[in-house]
Amino acid sequence: MVDEIHTSDPTDEMRSLSGYLAEQPQAEAIDKKDLSDPQLYINREISFLQFNWRVLQQALDEDLPLLERFIFIFIFSNNLDEFFEVRVASYVHWAKRNPQRVGPDGMTPNQVLNEISKSCHQLVQEQYRIFNDVMLPKLAEEGIHFLRRSQWNKKQSEWLTNYFTNEVAPIISPIGLDLAHPFPRLVNKSLHFIVTLEGKDAFGRDSGYAVVHLPRSLPRLIELPAEICDEGANFVFLSAVIHANASRMFPGMKVKGCYQFRLTRDSDLFVDEDEIEDLAGALKAELQSRDFGTSVRLEVADNCPDKVAQFLLQKCNLTENELYRVSGPVNLNRMLSLTQMLERPDLKFKPFKPSVPAILSGKRARIFEAIKAQDILLHHPFESFEPVINFIREAASDPDVMAIKQTLYRSGSQSAIVEALIDAARAGKEVTAVVELRARFDEKANIELAGKLQDAGALVVYGVVGYKTHAKLCVVTRREKKKLRHYAHLGTGNYHAGNARLYTDISLLTSDKSLCEDALRVFLQLTGMGKAYEMNKILQAPFSLQSSLSHHIDKEIANHKAGKPAFVKARMNSLTEPKMIQKLYEASQAGVKVDLVVRGICCLRPGVKGVSENIHVRSIVGRFLEHSRVFCFANNGDLKVYASSADWMDRNLYHRVETCFPITDKKLAQRLFDETIEYYLSDNQQSWELQSDGSYQKTRCEDDEPKLRAQKILLDTLSK
User: How many Cα atoms occupy the beta-carbon half-sphere of 557 within 13 Å?
Assistant: First the structure.
């Protein structure tokens, strides 16, 4: 089975996942002027599902350590959960309220939902096939066993019975369904069991059904003691323990069946900002109902009888298309705990230590003196995020620092940066924090950290009504020789130290007068009122970013026509905005070479004759989540390089506050171009090329070519 997986062509599977693309008329004869034709646009949601398929394929990469391969199954699961909670839920609402709505691809909400259902059913089937037929046998070879009920010996059965009696039974509350106990209101993504019963209980009830809710506090994996096992590490699924002890929950009745299931709900929050006076209060109220939004997906055990599955669908108000039968735990992402439970460094990535630039690494190094001397570029996670934390810490303790202004989108519940801001405020410094409360799934944490900052005396604002503050910037104002001097951190990623170890991102520490002035103007716009400021160097959404990027592409077109060096090379998380796609099509039609590294969603269709032959798109999926956004233009030989917090999406360009900043130091610009663009374009191990039909093909190197992994090159050259 494993050999068959690795000898098959994954491209064929990808095409089957997006069959509607292959069935569309070929776009070769498109009028060059009709760049809005739906045939030129890949559906956003199908593109995301293909990205998630690429994530899942990492579990089959035998060059990766086994437990790291296992993690990609959990990442896939978590991604799919959020996809249903947010994107599918949106389409469900649109299908009801605006069924004729169409996107750039020309598809209606119902058409999109149908394609999502087809693709997701195939994806889930593949996920569990890999889990059962590839990963579990591979883990068993390494002495890591998952024991089924039929494999338990007498001692193990007794131990697990005691575990159920002492650790599980006192916590759970089985609900027998009758008029007094109607079908419960299911919490989003919680594990439940539907139990079919025969006979009457002590009160004469005989509805035939009961529901058992498993609290999130219960571990989904149970490790058996070594003394009752033969060898290796042995685990049992909590679901198996429930199955084995189902009759103990219903004494005197016959348990005919016990089947796990999980309901996914709409988890997006909505507040009408035009109608509220207290955004934080409104979000707190919404958070209370997040777990009980509209039903969008029902997962059940694959052995669940049709009659029982239909009963659940009826109670959840869902249809057959929204039912997913799974061969294993219905919440695989909860199995991520396995990697923490096992002490097997041989099955994990080799640890690395992010490096610190020499100018900041000495014991006597003063960060403001270093930044004053030169711009400092940090490429995370290969280079440490600690200098960014130290920048704010030193600002908090430096008596010459007068003010700190900081945006916070996602910073984590235990944030050294937030603690430094609190210290600065308590020390009497002017601290302004722009906290974005609407960072999805971090709303509660952001409300709490905003409260902490306010209690310490910091000025906390929530940005601009109708626009998320997604920009990543901090400005420190310091008094030096009776004058004020500004220092800034500009970044592509969040102020989250944990993410900085897992995501690739760019940080720039600078005292460049123009950049610092621009950053201060962004803060003035966020906290005050007035017309948009004219910026020196920073491109800002929603005002100048889209038009400025289009201008740069137009300039490349003009340079190419004049016989001058011209290209567009960019990397981002997602590319969906039609105007930017059309501008890239125009560049391709003019003969400009366009190379894009797009991690996830890409709605542009490359390789269409007469439209996009000169556009190449690739996606890199590896150890670290590709998160940085870098935009490069040949500029007649005078390379222009920008780093940004913004993707090329409608929301980023028009509905968020974003910054895009130039790397003005020529050496740093060339370095960033090489590390974030050229290395990735040469990757032939973890690179996938987007085809004109919307599928992705794994890049393969010839036998005589060196194997190149961009992330490994960066680890080897930048980290310790």
Answer: 14
Q: Find how far residue 422's CA is from the centre of its chain.
A: 29
Q: Which residue has the higher pLDDT, 462 or 6?
A: 462
SS3 readout for 555-588: HHHHHHHCCCCCEEEEEECCECCHHHHHHHHHHH
Q: 176 in helix, strand or coil?
A: strand
pLDDT at residue 374 greater than cutoff 70 = yes
Question: Does the structure show a pLDDT above 50 at 546?
Answer: yes
Is the pLDDT at 30 greater than 80? The verdict is: no
Do residues 705 and 684 touch, judged by C-beta distance below 8 A? yes
In the prediction, which pLDDT does 500 show?
A: 92
* pLDDT band of 388, cuts 50, 70, 90: very high
8-state DSSP, 348: S
Number of H helices, E strands in the chain: 26, 27
pLDDT, residue 200, reads 73
Distances (CA, A) of 469 to 432, 435, 449, 459, 654: 14, 8, 16, 16, 12
- End position of a domain, from candidates 489, 505, 537: 537
Q: Strand pairing partners for 475?
A: 405, 488
Q: Which residues contact 104 (CB under 8 A, 6 or more apart)?
A: 36, 38, 41, 578, 581, 603
Residue 288 has pLDDT above 70, yes or no: no
Identify whether residues 241 and 384 lie together within a single domain.
no
Mapping DSSP onto H, E and C, the string for 457-507 reads CCEEECCECCEEECCEEEEEEEEECCEEEEEEEEECCCCCCCHHHCEEEEE
Locate 161 and state its tokens: 């019975």
Residues 448 and 503 in one domain: yes
Domain-embedded: residue 150: no
Considering the domain architecture, whether residues 529 and 389 belong to the same structural domain is answered as yes
Nearest residue to 629 (alpha-carbon basis) of 649, 616, 646: 646
Q: Of residues 470, 496, 560, 616, which has the active-site annotation?
A: 470
* Inside any domain, residue 160: no
pTM listed for this prediction? 0.90
- pLDDT, residue 427, reads 94
Are residue 385 and residue 422 in the same domain, yes or no? yes
Cα-based distances in Å from 84 to 51, 90, 120, 267:
15, 9, 10, 9
- The verdict on whether 616 is a catalytic residue reads no
